[in-house]
Specification:
rod-shaped, 72% helix
Length: 65
């Protein structure tokens, strides 16, 4: 099983703490940005799948109109 969005968000919280409290915290910015991008992409994919499922549920099977 892959890493969940919740796990990614928890890691972002940890990184936010490290970035804001460590003298060298800025070295973690690329990792933070990568997690942010991954979460955004996964949320977008879930939104797209929800739209597909709604369209599929309303499909009447009569062909394109």
């Amino acid at each position: 099983m892959g890493i969940t969005i919740e796990q990614l968000e928890k890691n972002m919280e940890y990184l936010a703490f490290a970035i804001s409290t460590r003298p060298d915290g800025t070295v973690y910015l690329p990792i933070y940005k990568r997690l942010e991008k991954e979460i955004s992409e996964r949320n977008s994919q879930m939104d797209t799948m929800a739209q597909i499922m709604m369209k599929a549920a309303s499909y009447s099977g009569t062909g394109a109109t």
